[in-house]
Prior knowledge:
Elements lengths: L1 H23 L11 H115 L4
Amino acid sequence: xxxxxxxxxxxxxxxxxxxxxxxxxxxxxxxxxxxxxxxxxxxxxxxxxxxxxxxxxxxxxxxxxxxxxxxxxxxxxxxxxxxxxxxxxxxxxxxxxxxxxxxxxxxxxxxxxxxxxxxxxxxxxxxxxxxxxxxxxxxxxxxxxxxxxxxxxx
Length: 154
């Protein structure tokens, strides 16, 4: 029985080894020459891949340019708005200054008219006083002259 067991063990061992050896076996790689269609397909794939990359870069560049353009437009619009506000403030200041000068001029005109009126009234009063004084003096002289004429000389 020992011999049967030894023989069975040896057969089993040989079978296991041959199974393992068969599993390890890799057939030799036979080099193949690419065909024209294989080369054409490869070139087409590579061209398509390069085309996609180029399109992606172009799209990215266009997006960046559009973004930059939008920023520039926004910046210009902001500057224009600021310039418009600045001009508006200047106009408002100029209008306020003009209004102030107008009021000042009106006040000066009124003051000048009042002074002229006062001088005119003063001149009229003075003239009236002179006329009155002259009239009184003339009346007195007339009275003296009449008295001289009425009173005989002695």
